[in-house]
Amino acid sequence: MKHLIGSNPWTNSGISRVFRVLSYSTKTLSSTTSPSNATDSLHIRISRAGDPKASIVPVLNQWLEEGKHVKQSVSEWMSEEMNYDISIGDMAIRLDLISKVHGLDQAEKYFDSLPDTMRTFQVYGALLNCYAYNKGLDKAEATMQDMRELGFPINAISYNVMLNIYCHLGKYEKLDVLMQEMEEKGIKHNAFTNNIRLNAYASSPDRGDGEIPGQDGKAEQIVTRETRKHAYEVFLTVYTNLGRKDEVYRIWKLYGNLGKFLNSGYLCMISSLIKLDDFDGAEKILAEWESGYSFYDSRIPKVMISAYCKRGFIEKAEAYTNSLIGRSVIKEPDAFILNSLATGYQIDGQMAKAVETLKKAILASISGWKPNIVTLAACLKFLEGEINIEAAEEILQLLRVGGHFSTDVYDRLVMNIRDRNPNACVLDQIKGDNETLDEESTRIRGGQI
Predict the structure, then answer these.
(1) How far apart are CA 178 and CA 193, in angstroms?
(2) How far apart are CA 244 and CA 213, in angstroms?
(3) Which of 99, 237, 360, 399 is close enough to 404 for a disulfide, judged by CB 3.0 to 4.6 Å?
(4) Comparing C-alpha atoms, which of 340, 368, 366 is closest to residue 354?
């Protein structure tokens, strides 16, 4: 799925307001311009959608499906002569959009074109994030220094941007210096600050001074009483990525000493053990969660079912799904579980079941769901080999109607199936569609499988 706006913290709060203003500002235009002579644009389509309070997601999805860019459209719209003044926040948004759509050079030109009175803390902050996003360390540091010299009230957001780029580039000595500056200026750390610090201390095998994670406890020394549970979940993920199962269990024990585990903690631990190929351990943690959870979190059983299917344990996946139904935990498997089961059948070579289950998953799906593209491709190939073109086209039609991929990809796949072109790769065609992503590639908080 395409992201409409990047992760710039100075712009996210304003983008929804931009679309609301866009909707209202085009009301007069849409009422006075006939469809025959109106230039097709995103803001005209939104204005025609009706109630300004209603969701504009369907309009945006259709715009994307036609191969058009939301970022660029909003950026161009903001530069038009409209009946309202562009605010400082809008300028920060536009700076971020230009950087994402046209590149950093154009963003710098836009920044330079602004009068000094418009180069506020927000705009400088957006520029700082643009440099950090593009790993432009020197320019990011220069911008941060400009903000200091201009006397801006630099907060944790700006420091987090710099801490993050230092962490990603392995500049740990600079990270320590910046942390010291925050303490001297009395700038409070937030959850993002702690995440960056914990990852930096725990993930580096050698920080240059002999400190090895898990041996000297350096990372754990910065954990406060208030942040312990969240910090331990970060540690679980970091040590899992390092392949250190002993440290994962050690952190889990420390987590347990704090009292009742959070659902996010169970999810993180189970995901970690799955990634470390410790299914016995994951099943024990799962059983522990099932015996005493106070709030049901569907992500936890789903991550286990998905793992069973991907590793070829389809019988375990079926048995666990049936147990959830038998215990009235769920009424029936949803699209996510069905998608996982279809993958399990495909891996196990049970292609008829894979096709049947994938179709059920599509029918049960909701907006935002995506099929496993490898399984989908295998099912289409199987039906093509069975000369069951109608069944293959039915699956594709269901996916198209559900908005799970574009009409263009649908047409190409149908043509490929009808022509039975042995040189055409269905998987590559599906992967080529930016709108078609495997839903299981989405990060699950607390770990990945």
Answers:
(1) 11
(2) 10
(3) 399
(4) 340
